[in-house]
Design brief:
Elements lengths: L2 E8 L10 H10 L5 E6 L5 E4 L5 E4 L4 E4 L2 E4 L1 H19 L4 E6 L1 H12 L6 E5 L19 E7 L8 H12 L5 E6 L7 H18 L3
Parallel strand pairs: 1-2, 1-7, 7-8, 8-9, 9-10
Antiparallel strand pairs: 3-4, 5-6
Length: 212
């Protein structure tokens, strides 16, 4: 029996795991595996008050605060959910290979988990996301170098496209050498063209790694 290749996808603010079903469906349909089989995980964020939205409870991985016209992450809740998800991912995958991905808030978590989990993923996909509280991230010293796909909308009015370059630069400072950054003519969302690029990128990478 083949071993699983786990795919974790973390959704954005106010959504749920099903919001990213089109991504996981496309990956499992178009990225064929031989020695492994896909096992998809799309967890739901807890429902909690979000300061940015006047304290209205909604699915949110961590609190967001308006700050001088920008959006600031609450550092305590961000650190807490990162620790919770570290344990959840480790308990789920054991010693199986895995891939992380996320949109917006979920991309923040995919990035942190990729850099801080004791055993790194094969790859990570970060869409329309940013880099809050980088001082909390202990930079890896084990030489890990997973492939990373960063996608961002050129017209994103929530998270400016320059945030993609900041994530990219931080990852390279952490020693990652296989980072792909792509911009798309969209606001805070995902285009079919972007999904196509993700599946082609992942196919190419898994082929090179012999990790199917």
């Amino acid at each position: 029996m083949s071993r699983p290749l786990h795919l974790f996808l973390f959704h954005g603010l106010g959504a749920d795991g099903d919001d990213l079903a089109p991504i996981s469906d496309l990956i499992t349909e178009r990225v064929a595996l031989t020695d492994h089989h896909w096992q998809v995980h799309r967890p739901d964020a807890p429902v909690s008050p979000v300061s940015l939205n006047g304290g209205l409870p909604m699915p949110s991985w961590f609190d967001l605060i308006a700050d001088n016209g920008g959006i600031e992450a609450d550092r305590d809740s961000l650190a807490g959910i990162t620790a919770d998800l570290q344990q959840q991912v480790q308990d789920t995958v054991g010693d199986d290979p895995y891939i992380l991905g996320g949109f917006s808030q979920g991309g923040v978590l995919a990035n942190r988990l990729m850099l801080t989990l004791p055993r790194p993923p094969l790859a990570a996909v970060m869409l329309s996301t940013w880099l809050p509280a980088p001082e909390q991230i202990v930079r890896p010293t084990d030489g890990r170098d997973p492939a990373v796909f960063i996608g961002h909308g050129e017209h994103d009015n929530l998270i400016p496209v320059r945030a993609a370059g900041m994530v990219n630069a931080f990852l390279q400072d952490c020693g990652l050498s296989n980072v792909t950054e792509q911009h798309y003519p969209v606001e805070h969302g995902i285009l079919p063209e972007e999904l196509q690029d993700i599946t082609e990128w992942l196919n190419d990478y898994l082929n090179k790694q012999g990790a199917r």
